[in-house]
UniProtKB/TrEMBL annotation:
Pfam family, one: DUF4245
Sequence segments annotated as region (Disordered): 161-197
Comp. bias (Basic and acidic residues): 167-197
Record lineage: Bacteria, Bacillati, Actinomycetota, Actinomycetes, Kitasatosporales
Biological source species: Streptomyces daliensis
Domain of life: Bacteria
Identification of the protein by name: DUF4245 domain-containing protein
Amino acid sequence: MVISLGVIVLAAWVIYLFVPHDEHQDPVKPVSYRVELDSARRAAPYPVLAPHGLSDDWRPTSVTYEPEGQQGAAWHLGFMAPGDEYAAVEQSDQSRPAKFIEDVTHKASKTAKTDTFGGEKWTRYEGEKYDALVLEDPENKVTTVVTGTASFARLGELADSLTSGKAAEEAASKAADEAARKEADKAAEGTDESGKG
């Protein structure tokens, strides 16, 4: 049994040794959110928000739209913000906004502080894991939360960029094209370097 284990460990080591690794490659893989944004905008019972005008340093990393989940009709768009901090846009029409806010902010607490972005007053929430900016819109029956490990300045930058119109769709398309171009450039660099002897 010990000999078998030794052979397995040796085989695993040999495989690891000969499989190429790129330790310098960025582990964050940007995603395109254009299709999900279009689908969510058609299906959601509220105006779905997405950023417009953010710099290329904001890399989209996750996107989902769940039409009938535990959170109601829920939209999520996550980013790796500048400084390698996480920030996300969360929206829901859940009938209990306090529960939704608690869930997506990992139990952050409401403060008396507010900030104004896009002409709307956002309430600050502070937590051990995530901070957040929250906008409750009873007219459209939607709660929007910008949350994450990023600073309030970065969360505010994201909140200020949110729009429900064509500009956001164009930004999503641009972000997808830019992510694809960067991946192609990295792949080409890897090919160039591996071809050098």
